[in-house]
Amino acid sequence: MPRAASPRSTPAEAHAAIEVLARLAALHAERRAQLAEGVGLSDPQWGVLEEIATEHFLPSLFAQKRESSAAAVSKLLRQLLDRGLVTSQAGESDGRQRRYSLTPAGRELMASLRAAREAAVRDVWLSLPAETVRAFSSSGLAIAARLEDYARSVRGKD
């Protein structure tokens, strides 16, 4: 026997869900800032270190992805260089390009951040029933896809 389609959500339910999403986003940002501050970084500095750790870091692409200016990314890089967390060398094919990498101190700091983040994942997410996490992920992906589609359709009308 086919399942009956569930009724659409009400405006009140939709607004309640949006409030939950906003609360989750704020809590995630707050926790990320706490983790960064715990090792003496700002969240933007952590973001740069994470990207440098991938070994595919390009300051201009990072700035574009984060909707930041090249000057702001340069400032973050100078701060990390001054703290001895990253090194910089001229690119092999183009001396104007810089290649950034983590120093041993930078790798150690990233390991501390990862350990703290994994502890939070263990304590918060892994303590939930698997079905709850799967349902959250599935719903979140569906909502994200709908938001992306909607944003594209609205941009097309501008």
How does this structure look, described?
With 158 residues, the chain is mainly α. The chain has a single domain, classed as Orthogonal Bundle (Arc Repressor Mutant, subunit A), CATH 1.10.10. It contains six helices and two strands, in the order ααααββαα. It has helices spanning 11-38, 43-53, 59-65, 70-82, 104-125, 130-157, and strands spanning 86-90, 98-102. A two-stranded antiparallel sheet has the order 1-2. A hairpin with a 7-residue loop joins strand 1 and strand 2 (98-102). Helix 2 (43-53) packs across helix 4 (70-82) and helix 3 (59-65) packs across helix 4 (70-82). The N and C termini lie far apart (46 Å). The mean pLDDT is 90.
Short description:
The protein is mainly α. The chain has 6 helices and 2 strands. The protein has one domain: Orthogonal Bundle (Arc Repressor Mutant, subunit A).
